[in-house]
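Q: Make up one entry.
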Amino acid sequence: MVITAVIVMVILNKTVLIKHPELIGEPEVAKWYRVTPEGTKSSDGSEWHGLIRIGTENKVVVYFFGGGVSINGYTSRRGTEFFATTAKVQDFVASGGIGSNAKDNPFKDWTFLVLPYASGDFHSGTGEYHYTEGGKEKIVYHNGYNNYSAFMDTVKPYVGQPDTLLVTGFSAGGFATSLLADDVIDRFPSAKNTTICVDSSLLLYDGWHETATDLWQSPVEISNRLTGNNLVLDSLTALYNKRGDSIKILFDCSYRDDTLQEYQAFIRMGKMEKSKENGDLFQNDLNEMVRSLQENIPGIGIYIWNYNEDPKTHNTQHTIISSNVFDKLEEGVSVADWIYAAVNGDVQSHGLELLGK
């Protein structure tokens, strides 16, 4: 029992118990810091913070974390059943995967600006959801855009004038990448080399525009892009139509994502559920999405991957850039290799055969 307790504590100390120091004064190179702008908050009203690590190269990664979503009043009231409601225990995620200092990480010397996720609104909201429970008024803060904007304003002076920009995120952070990439690009006009990478973000919902407008209260320049049932497709198409070939756009996903299919089941029938049948539906939806992305965005890079496949359902792991980004999953190429090649002008596609294409 003692040995087990020690092992558990070692694991906790390397993960959820990690808490980076608050940035005071000038940051040291290669050291992680918290930045807590005044007035920012998680959905439960607790403190929200971003993370920064200054690199030695004049290149910046803006990195959005994931953690579920709220699409209506029911999901907002149910909180942690559907999305992360506090940013308190997310610091450890930043130093894994694409943010790690692993010697084979081509981004290890870049500056990282990290947005933990605790707002249920794909980092895009400015609103509050009020309801009454047990005779008491409660508030859910869908303040993701407010948090993002305040953080970016605060850290911008430490970053200088980067020549290269990568905007990326996983799961809800991938949705955020599609929604906020245009805003991020405007904040770094010096960056002439810009790459956008959405990791594991596909949910079909006819009410995205109403959710963004009424629940999240996203800025109109964000919500006005949402005209169909595929938020990422709408957002990336609008981004390409505005920016054209001045940027590179990437999309990756596991071909039978076990978490996205679960949320899609809730949207479709009101019940969170994983199954082979739901995996089949997701695979079909992903096939259609990839086809539409390729039609709407000439030159887009696609990486479809298979990892941790369940032998019975064939459903696969959700997200890659925060964990297995260096594993050579398809055609001897890792997702990190794929992203870095695009940054350097070589936009590729891998794994399309998993969709039967």
